[in-house]
Design brief:
The protein has 105 residues and is α/β, with parallel strands linked by helices. The chain has a 5-stranded mixed beta sheet. The chain is globular and about 30 Å long.
Length: 105
């Protein structure tokens, strides 16, 4: 299961981190986010050797969502060495999600 992180954890783990981090910007009230959650968790488990998967609640960390221009959820942003390198908006099947992450390893 992907760890839910807050604003300070995001800054420490993702922005100041090394390697690939995949962040699911979600909201508890979002239907497509709930559909994506198990797929995101499965992808994170399958890719745990290559990338770290995290979830960020936009209602709890609005300033981070604004910083990355997240205006629609779910939005997944792939970070490499602290820099955003890819962004996926909306629901995506697991195989396509894994493919997009692998393209940024």
């Amino acid at each position: 299961m992907a760890k839910v992180i807050n604003t300070s954890e995001f800054k420490n783990i993702v922005e100041n981190g090394n390697g690939v981090a995949v962040v699911d910007f979600f909201a508890t009230w979002c239907g497509p986010c709930k559909m994506l959650a198990p797929i995101f968790a499965e992808a994170g488990e399958e890719m745990k050797e290559d990338a770290n998967f995290y979830k960020l609640d936009i209602d709890q960390s609005l300033e981070i969502a604004q910083q990355f221009n997240v205006s629609s959820v779910p939005t997944i942003i792939v970070f490499k060495d602290g820099k955003a390198v890819d962004q996926i908006v909306g629901f995506m099947p697991k195989d396509r999600l894994i493919e997009r992450v692998k393209n940024n390893l």
